[in-house]
Amino acid sequence: MGRMVVVSARVEEELKRRAEELGINISAIVRRALEEEVRRREIERFVQQLRRRMEKGPEMPEGVICEVIREMRDHEG
């Protein structure tokens, strides 16, 4: 894991209190949500770039993009 930094978010005091009462690890949830959103947007960006390249080049067989995305997901984790 790389160097850690602090990220802050404002939430209502009541929500924080309820989360703490339930033993929710807020940091872990925020970290996981941010990781998932970054991964989703990276894949989205990759698909957009791939589509732009495909428009310029020869036609690819149907299903190739889906196959590439599945391979990317399988190799992530």
DSSP, total strands: 0
Please report which band the strand proportion falls in: under 5%, 5-15%, 15-25%, 25-35%, 35-45% or over 45%: under 5%
Outline the biggest β-sheet.
none
Helix content: 55-70%
Question: Overview of this structure, please?
Answer:
The chain is mainly α. It has one domain. 69% of the residues lie in helices and 0% in strands. It has 3 helices and no strands. The longest helix has 31 residues, at 26-56. The radius of gyration is 19 Å and the shape is elongated.
Features:
mainly alpha; 77 residues; 69% helix; elongated; 0% strand
Task: Put the structure in a nutshell.
With 77 residues, the chain is an all-alpha fold. It has three helices and no strands.
Layout of helices and strands, plus pairs?
Elements: H1 13-21, H2 26-56, H3 64-76
